Amino acid sequence: xxxxxxxxxxxxxxxxxxxxxxxxxxxxxxxxxxxxxxxxxxxxxxxxxxxx
Length: 52
Known about the structure:
Elements: H1 3-18, H2 25-51
């Protein structure tokens, strides 16, 4: 194994330890995006109404 491969493996392992990824992350991300999009929709309409 060359140095670059070893270095990448060490970096990947340390990132996984530092920032563990849970199985529910995609579902949580989807819910967060839905919440954010529902909050921004009325504001976008309000901004459009103010510019007219």
